[in-house]
Amino acid sequence: MDITSRTVFIAGATSGIGLELARRFRAAGSTVVVGGRRTDTFTRLADEGLVPVEIDVTDAGSVTRARDEVLRTHPGLDTVITMAGTGIPEDLRDPAHFGAAETTVAVNVLGTIRVIDAFTPHLLARGNGGSGNSNSNSTIITVSSGIGFLPFPLMPTYGASKAAVHAYTEALRAQLAGTGVEVAELVPPAVATPLGSGNPHALALDAYGAEVMDLLAQDPTPPEILVQGVLMHRWAERDGTYAELVAQRSQALSMLPGRSASSGRSGS
After folding, report:
1. Are strands 7-11 and 224-225 parallel, antiparallel or unpaired?
2. What is the pLDDT of residue 261?
3. Which residues 6+ apart lie within 8 Å of 111 measured at CB?
4. pTM of the full predicted structure?
5. How deeply is 155 buried, as exposed, middle or buried, from its count of CB atoms within 10 A (0-12, 13-18, 19+)?
6. Residues labelled as active-site residues
């Protein structure tokens, strides 16, 4: 991917990884539209040279309005990144967790699909039909997580939702093969953002952004954008470390009300 000349829309880019990548695309020379619900940040984002657009990925009308605005002002849009996501700890012994599960699926899975559906006709229309000229290709980048490959039992629906994004991305790539629309999957590890706060092993945001941009700039674009810090998650089953790592990560269950550290280690 030529990161210096793209026209990029990132849904969910008013903070965290999305904003970090938006700034890096912009610094590289690309035009970047950032979507999000936090309209109080829009003036600051505009001052940075980013183009803010309001979008709530759980609202079909909001996504349609955002799509229409983006394509009206940036008809040359060639890259869509579905960054919006949420993750919430859940106690599966308490039926009240269902609200958190429902929210997580609505944002991470249905929100991803909704944004892709909104922009796919445009991206297909400008695709080159697989002619091999990568400069005219369009790109969809989904965002899963290392937790989609190596579960974190404290956040069960988050992991399930990201596994779903991975599977959906694989199917999307297969269905769009030969259309001139490439499909890549960003697989973050824990990164020092509000979602990853409190994790002493979280990768620094700037370091993560720099490594991601280097991977995106490869030709061809890797189908999975895997920084070094996520390889232990992605290949745990292959490497025979899966059971041990899940047991280690189950210790975090002691954070739930009424759980002891020993019950966390047992994976309960």
Report:
1. unpaired
2. 53
3. 11, 57, 58, 82, 84, 85
4. 0.92
5. buried
6. 158
